[in-house]
Protein backbone atom coordinates (compact mmCIF):
# COMPACT_ATOMS: atom_id res chain seq x y z
CA UNK A 1 0.00 0.00 0.00
CA UNK A 2 1.10 3.54 -0.75
CA UNK A 3 0.00 6.61 1.13
CA UNK A 4 1.12 10.22 1.03
CA UNK A 5 1.06 13.01 3.58
CA UNK A 6 1.34 16.39 1.79
CA UNK A 7 3.98 18.98 2.55
CA UNK A 8 3.18 20.65 5.82
CA UNK A 9 4.93 23.04 8.14
CA UNK A 10 8.04 20.85 8.18
CA UNK A 11 8.62 21.54 4.47
CA UNK A 12 8.56 17.99 3.09
CA UNK A 13 6.04 15.37 2.00
CA UNK A 14 5.91 11.84 3.40
CA UNK A 15 5.46 8.81 1.14
CA UNK A 16 4.75 5.60 3.05
CA UNK A 17 5.23 2.20 1.42
CA UNK A 18 3.80 -0.59 3.54
CA UNK A 19 3.17 -4.21 2.66
CA UNK A 20 2.28 -4.95 -0.96
CA UNK A 21 2.01 -2.09 -3.47
CA UNK A 22 -0.99 -2.34 -5.82
CA UNK A 23 -1.55 -0.46 -9.06
CA UNK A 24 -4.60 1.33 -7.65
CA UNK A 25 -2.50 2.86 -4.86
CA UNK A 26 -1.15 5.34 -7.40
CA UNK A 27 -4.64 6.73 -8.08
CA UNK A 28 -4.67 8.40 -4.67
CA UNK A 29 -0.98 9.21 -4.21
CA UNK A 30 -0.05 10.69 -7.61
CA UNK A 31 -2.48 13.66 -7.56
CA UNK A 32 -1.35 14.63 -4.05
CA UNK A 33 2.34 14.57 -4.99
CA UNK A 34 1.70 16.47 -8.22
CA UNK A 35 -0.24 19.12 -6.28
CA UNK A 36 2.65 19.54 -3.83
CA UNK A 37 5.13 19.90 -6.69
CA UNK A 38 2.87 22.46 -8.36
CA UNK A 39 2.59 24.44 -5.11
CA UNK A 40 6.24 24.23 -4.02
CA UNK A 41 8.17 23.85 -7.28
CA UNK A 42 10.53 21.16 -6.06
CA UNK A 43 9.70 18.55 -3.48
CA UNK A 44 11.64 17.21 -0.53
CA UNK A 45 10.42 13.71 0.25
CA UNK A 46 10.61 11.44 3.28
CA UNK A 47 10.04 7.93 1.94
CA UNK A 48 9.28 5.40 4.66
CA UNK A 49 9.35 1.75 3.61
CA UNK A 50 7.83 -0.54 6.19
CA UNK A 51 7.52 -4.32 5.85
CA UNK A 52 7.56 -4.21 2.05
CA UNK A 53 6.22 -7.49 0.64
CA UNK A 54 6.35 -6.75 -3.08
CA UNK A 55 4.63 -5.01 -5.96
CA UNK A 56 1.91 -6.03 -8.31
CA UNK A 57 3.49 -6.05 -11.83
CA UNK A 58 1.26 -3.22 -13.06
CA UNK A 59 2.19 -1.18 -9.96
CA UNK A 60 5.83 -1.43 -11.03
CA UNK A 61 4.88 -0.08 -14.48
CA UNK A 62 2.86 2.76 -12.95
CA UNK A 63 5.74 3.60 -10.62
CA UNK A 64 8.05 4.08 -13.60
CA UNK A 65 5.42 6.00 -15.61
CA UNK A 66 4.82 8.33 -12.68
CA UNK A 67 8.35 8.62 -11.34
CA UNK A 68 10.45 9.26 -14.42
CA UNK A 69 8.74 12.53 -15.47
CA UNK A 70 8.99 13.87 -11.91
CA UNK A 71 12.58 12.86 -11.21
CA UNK A 72 13.93 16.38 -11.73
CA UNK A 73 11.25 17.91 -9.52
CA UNK A 74 12.28 16.10 -6.35
CA UNK A 75 15.31 17.76 -4.80
CA UNK A 76 15.91 15.52 -1.77
CA UNK A 77 14.84 12.05 -0.73
CA UNK A 78 15.39 10.69 2.76
CA UNK A 79 14.80 6.96 2.44
CA UNK A 80 13.94 5.25 5.72
CA UNK A 81 13.75 1.49 5.26
CA UNK A 82 13.66 -1.44 7.62
CA UNK A 83 15.26 -3.78 5.04
CA UNK A 84 19.02 -3.39 4.65
CA UNK A 85 18.87 -4.35 0.96
CA UNK A 86 16.54 -1.40 0.29
CA UNK A 87 18.93 1.04 1.95
CA UNK A 88 21.78 -0.45 -0.10
CA UNK A 89 19.75 -0.08 -3.30
CA UNK A 90 18.94 3.51 -2.32
CA UNK A 91 22.64 4.25 -1.83
CA UNK A 92 23.56 2.63 -5.15
CA UNK A 93 20.82 4.08 -7.32
CA UNK A 94 20.77 7.44 -5.54
CA UNK A 95 23.80 8.40 -7.62
CA UNK A 96 21.66 8.18 -10.76
CA UNK A 97 19.09 10.57 -9.33
CA UNK A 98 19.60 14.30 -10.04
CA UNK A 99 18.55 15.20 -6.49
CA UNK A 100 20.17 14.18 -3.24
CA UNK A 101 19.34 10.82 -1.70
CA UNK A 102 20.30 9.72 1.77
CA UNK A 103 19.30 6.47 3.46
CA UNK A 104 18.41 5.91 7.10
CA UNK A 105 17.55 3.00 9.36
CA UNK A 106 14.18 3.24 11.13
CA UNK A 107 15.94 3.99 14.43
CA UNK A 108 17.40 7.14 12.85
CA UNK A 109 14.18 8.46 11.31
CA UNK A 110 14.50 11.68 13.31
CA UNK A 111 17.87 12.30 11.66
CA UNK A 112 16.16 11.87 8.27
CA UNK A 113 13.65 14.56 9.17
CA UNK A 114 16.39 16.91 10.38
CA UNK A 115 18.33 16.34 7.14
CA UNK A 116 15.25 17.21 5.05
CA UNK A 117 14.43 20.28 7.12
CA UNK A 118 17.96 21.63 6.68
CA UNK A 119 18.10 20.85 2.94
CA UNK A 120 18.24 23.88 0.71
Automatic annotation (TrEMBL):
InterPro entries: SpoIIAA-like, SpoIIAA-like_sf, STAS_dom_sf. Transmembrane segments: none annotated. This is STAS/SEC14 domain-containing protein. It comes from Pacificimonas flava.
Amino acid sequence: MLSYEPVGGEGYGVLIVSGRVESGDFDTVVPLIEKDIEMHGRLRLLEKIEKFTGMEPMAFVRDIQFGLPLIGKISHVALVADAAWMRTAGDLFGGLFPGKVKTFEPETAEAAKIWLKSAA
